[in-house]
Amino acid sequence: MFTSLLLRTISGWWKFAIPEYTLTMKILITGAYGLVGSVVYQHLLKVKPEAKIFGLGRRRQISDRIDPRKTFDIPENRLFISDLSNLEEVYEILRGFDTVVHMAADPRPDAPWESILKSNILGTYNILEGSMRAGVKRVIAASTVMVSWGYFDKDPHKSIRLGTADSQTVEKYRILPTDPVQPTCLYASSKVCLEAMAKTYTSTHPISIFCLRIGAVNSEDRPSPGCRDCWCSHRDISQIVEKCIDAKPSAKFGIHYAVSESLWRSFDIESAKRELGYVPLDRVPG
């Protein structure tokens, strides 16, 4: 009896000290064989050994955006195969998960509408609706800096992106998460839809969703000349996802730019610093 009481007391204190959903967390990463999804999956395996990490992909094959020398595999008992087009199937997969990191999408800026509709819009709806029905507590959803791409059609943002603006101009005109979106392709438009759906679900259901406007992540993990203003390193995309997972349970909704540091950084990351504690680990040289 004493032992039972002691265990109940310890258990009660432990749950009070640490949010309950962090104790035996079960996490699903969709798009786990994609470039960003694979980086995040492998990072979470290292930093959350106590958690049960699962992956989901359309097929058991790594993306052609990944350097073939960096191959990895997901154990069969930790992998789901789905294209996310069937809501009931998605719901059954999501039952029992605490957190979903939704990275699955067709990332091509020139992708045809049929693929965008199925993969990015219907797939996202099924993840959010399925998560709500299954009792998932938090979703971290991949948006993109490309929702703001239209700003670069004219100055001062055009000059900032080209690296010809002075430092005062760069700091003064950084694009905020609250600025109006300016997508210039269907892919970016689908991510605007994702953000709107996320807001709808957090406003009407007891679920927390963070939307990350992810910058230029590449297999080489180094900035190319054309993305000095929006590069995001593997370490930085991994740590901002981790910080979203670990954010306090009362944090219901947020849209944040996920980019590394740079003298030419076009996007404001103060909200991510303030609300998530995100501070870039890497920066563009220069």
What would a concise description of this structure say?
Helix content is 38%, strand content 13%. It is an alpha/beta fold and 286 residues long.
Word description of this protein:
The structure is a single chain. The chain is of the alpha/beta class. It has a single domain, classed as NAD(P)-binding Rossmann-like Domain (Rossmann fold). The protein has 9 helices and 7 strands, in the order H-E-H-E-E-H-E-H-E-H-H-H-E-H-E-H. Strands 3-2-1-4-5-6-7 form a 7-stranded parallel sheet, sandwiched between helices. The chain is globular.
Q: Any key phrases for this structure?
A:
seven-stranded parallel β-sheet; 9 helices; 286 residues; alpha/beta; 38% helix; Rossmann fold; 7 strands; 13% strand
Question: What's the pLDDT, averaged over the residues?
Answer: 92
Fold-level CATH name: Rossmann fold
Classify the helix fraction into a percent range. 25-40%
Number of strands: 7
Give the total of domains. Answer: 1
CATH superfamily: NAD(P)-binding Rossmann-like Domain
Low-confidence stretches: 1-22
Radius of gyration: 19 Å
GO molecular function, one term: uronate dehydrogenase activity
InterPro entries: Epimerase_deHydtase, NAD(P)-bd_dom_sf
Pfam families: Epimerase
Organism: Candidatus Moanibacter tarae
